[in-house]
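Structure in, sequence out. Go:
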């Protein structure tokens, strides 16, 4: 099991971790830790025997059928407190219980992300990028700041894998705050209809809705300036004759699907059901004549 915390990375800190391993024999485990002088036994903490590596960078604790290992003594102590019932436990967190309540109970795997903590991580990344005036992973500080603002509307994310007779079903639950931005709260229900046009022997089917408008919104929300967007779209139209706003966005509105099936060795198909067939038809002719594409 893993538990993590984060220091202020904008000031050069690093991620903290705690690893939990079940122990069947605490005495043998402690002997193994100290053999060869790799770890030195320290002062006990809340009934746990503690150990520190020779370089002073790794900390461990053993007690009650558990081995805890961390790169932070403070984080190690916090995990001991939680396990002993004196610290704040995830099982009692409102966001966690609300998120899990939205999912089935007969799962073989679950996952949980705390929205507030995720927003904090994004803010730290933004601060780091802004302090250096550079892009982080190709994303500008303005983009990270916009992303952080979006995350403030997320209370929690959770997923579950549930066994069924013919396989597994994956479900995702998203809890939003009351003041969540419209980009998160105004999500339309999506019922796929293009599967009736797909061969039964297909290997995979992935359905989307409004991919073009969503892509345009994502580019804007990433913090890219209007001038940069205009310049990029103009360059695309100059080189290919294809307009992002007038061709790509209308063509990729409505419903889209990608299928993979038998071929040499496989074949892929793109299916489009535009929201406005008239505009999409014009875009299709533009693609066919300028890019040589067949849709």
């Amino acid at each position: 099991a893993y538990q993590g915390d984060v220091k202020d990375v904008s000031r050069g800190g690093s991620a903290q971790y705690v690893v939990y391993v079940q122990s069947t024999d605490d005495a043998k485990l402690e002997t193994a830790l100290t053999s060869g002088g790799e770890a030195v036994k320290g002062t006990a903490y809340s009934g746990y025997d503690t150990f520190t590596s020779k370089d002073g960078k790794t900390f461990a604790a053993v007690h009650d059928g558990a081995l805890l290992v961390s790169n932070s003594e403070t984080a190690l102590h916090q995990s001991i407190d939680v396990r002993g019932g004196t610290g704040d436990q995830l099982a009692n967190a409102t966001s966690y219980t609300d998120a899990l309540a939205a999912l089935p109970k007969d799962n073989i795997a679950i996952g949980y992300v705390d929205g507030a903590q995720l927003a904090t991580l994004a803010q730290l990344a933004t601060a780091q990028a802004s302090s250096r005036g550079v892009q982080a992973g190709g994303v500008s500080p303005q983009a990270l700041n916009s992303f952080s603002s979006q995350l403030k509307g997320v209370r929690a994310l959770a997923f579950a894998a549930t066994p069924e007779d013919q396989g597994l079903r994956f479900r995702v639950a998203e809890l939003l705050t009351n003041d969540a931005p419209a980009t998160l709260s105004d999500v339309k229900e999506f019922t796929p209809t293009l599967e009736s046009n797909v061969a039964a022997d297909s290997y995979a089917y992935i359905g989307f809705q409004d991919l073009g408008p969503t892509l345009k919104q994502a580019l804007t929300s990433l913090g890219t300036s209007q001038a940069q967007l205009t310049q990029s779209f103009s360059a695309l139209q100059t080189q290919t004759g294809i307009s992002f706003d007038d061709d790509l966005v209308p063509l990729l509105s409505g419903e889209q699907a990608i299928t993979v099936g038998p071929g040499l060795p496989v074949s892929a198909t793109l299916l489009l059901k535009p929201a406005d067939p008239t505009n999409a038809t014009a875009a299709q002719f533009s693609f066919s004549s300028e890019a040589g594409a067949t849709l």
